[in-house]
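Example record used in the benchmark description.
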Amino acid sequence: MIRLGSHAPTKHAFSGLVGLALAYFNFGVDVYHCVLTMFVTWLLLQVFSSQRKIGVAVSFVFNFAYLLIGYYFHSTEDYDIDWTLPQCVLCLRLIGLSWDCYDGSKPVDKLRSDQLLNHIRDIPGLLETFGYTFFFGAVLTGPQFPLRRYRQFISGHLFDKVHLATVTMKQIRAASRRAALGRLALGIVYLAVSNVGGAIFPASRLTQLGDASFVEAFFTIWITAHVGLRKYLGVWLIAEGSCIITGMAVEVSAAAPDRDNIRDIKHLEWHGLANVKPSLFELPLSVQDLIASFNINTNDWAKRYLFKRLMFLNNKNMSTIGTLAFLALWHGYSFGYYLTFATEFLSLLCLQTLTKRNKALGLDQNVVYRWCVMFPVTHIVAAYGYVPFETLGYGKTVTMLSSVGWIVHAAMLGYFVLELAAGAVGMAPRAPKPVDEKKRQ
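Model output (structure tokens):
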């Protein structure tokens, strides 16, 4: 795919047909749902090309409703592997496309910085929409990316800042292959860990902890959750590798001496479509580290197309609730999804007050405190926040968490209530006052 100057329609057709073939191989004729929603979205963009505000509203409702209706007829209390899996990925992609086209109808001075980067003035043609929607590196599990990046990839403009007389396309292809194989290898390792760990700590054990001791139940949930999380990292790393080898994930290194004139292959990086940051995810020191390292592109999508567009609520917490509620419903109707995102919101509330408290006590830069307290606490919160994804159903989830007395959720809620009480009596954390250098001298 890394061919500068190649025929764009050919690239669109190749991208779309290979992606559609992958989807058909996995889900058979049911992929017609994906094709239908892609076509209807494109048709809506054409019909409402002069009334894009209406177009984005209709597209949003259509794509989200189609997915939810699919869940209604096909979902179970298990993790379903059927046509709704790629459909949920394409649902976000097509809604994002509609938002970008709407932003393209607004004056430039009315756009935020992220909207300036991604807005689309001209409505894409059907073949381009097909290639973008079914791009083979991201059709099954993501990552999400805007049409603007896809266009730069197809046209070769992603490499505009590369001095091709010094850095050859042969070098670029070799570098992309090395990076892609590295992601593939790491992805396989994560999947192996997930499969071997899953055999030792099967998810089915989570609903059979009634007779287990508190310690056994606590650590079984903790370990099983982290084993389950690793399968996502494995799948996303492999998908990222396929995006890298095409050249679509290229970006200029921040360390490049001249970012507009790249003359050394070492100044090209391949993290442009990274969906995970393994090192940060394995060694997190806060909930924010988890969010910044896991499902990165979906989080970025939610931030751009939901959270920032809910600013009219004039309340950050309300915007967060609206965003997390959408993401929970986007996953399906199972109780576990809603508990996971409710837990994320509670953990973010705790993080806000804990960050202030740590700064007030001078602990925010204390290495011992960060690694001996914040690191294990973050790992526990990650496990207990995610684990409802493994049980999903209300009965199974409640049974599992009751075996440990909902201790992690109770601890977070208790901490947050205590901080509210402390604020009510004037004991809220305050940042330390800056030192007056004159007085120090």
